[in-house]
Specification:
Blueprint (H helix, E strand, L loop, with lengths): L2 H8 L11 E8 L2 E11 L5 E10 L1 H20 L7 H15 L4 E7 L5 E9 L13 E2 L4 H8 L4 E3 L10 H7 L7 E3 L3 E2 L2 E2 L1
Antiparallel strand pairs: 1-2, 2-3, 4-5, 5-6, 7-8, 9-10
Length: 196
């Protein structure tokens, strides 16, 4: 953030004759944005008492809006994609989503026809992360009991901290922790309302 510029922008607001109402957004620190609202405080006889300020951290709201826009753009790009171009489009989408979320890895797993195993079919990694797609094939789904149960219920899995998973998720924690996975978001992919 440009603290001197921010401080300078507030100086004219301190003058009694400056009746302007300010409402703006300030890039405060890396990835943080603050909404500023300011108006004068005056009495019944227009006597000046000072200025009223509200500062609100709107970073998460802005990121959500940006992410929704990113998903909309990806959706429009994928609409009408030729079947031979789908793998490239999916990899592009994973890269965009992973980068936007500052993730180390984004991947897609698909269930086998009998739904007893799952395989990593698409994977994107940052440059310093080793791909695992070759090692993540034909994994028995029963080693992830809570994971599969949740996905079959068509629910997302948002793990803020792998090490803090409850006892009921012990099997998942014992698989994720050795891989160095700290947090995770898993979204079911459905076809005709069935988990694929």
């Amino acid at each position: 953030a440009d603290i001197p510029a921010f401080a300078e922008s507030g100086k004219p607001l301190q003058y009694e004759d400056n009746r302007v109402v300010v409402e703006d957004e300030i890039a405060f620190t890396q990835n943080r944005t603050v909404h500023r609202y300011s108006t004068q405080i005056r009495g019944e006889n227009d006597e000046y008492f000072g200025r009223f300020y509200i500062f609100e951290d709107i970073s998460e709201r802005k990121r959500t809006d940006e992410f929704e826009n990113e998903l909309l753009q990806l959706s429009m790009q994928m609409t009408g994609t030729k079947s031979e171009d789908i793998p490239q489009a999916i990899n592009h989408a994973l890269a965009k989503i992973g980068s936007f979320l500052y993730a180390d890895r984004a991947y897609i797993f698909e269930l086998s026809e009998d739904a007893n195993t799952m395989s990593n079919t698409y994977e994107w990694c940052t440059e310093d992360i080793h791909p695992e797609i070759e090692n993540l094939q034909d994994i028995p789904v029963d080693i992830f009991p809570m994971w599969i149960k949740t996905l079959r219920n068509k629910e997302n899995i948002h793990i803020h901290s792998v090490k803090d998973l409850p006892e009921s998720w012990t099997a998942e924690r014992e698989i994720l922790e050795p891989q160095g996975i700290q947090s995770l978001l898993v979204i079911p992919i459905l076809n005709n309302n069935e988990l694929i």
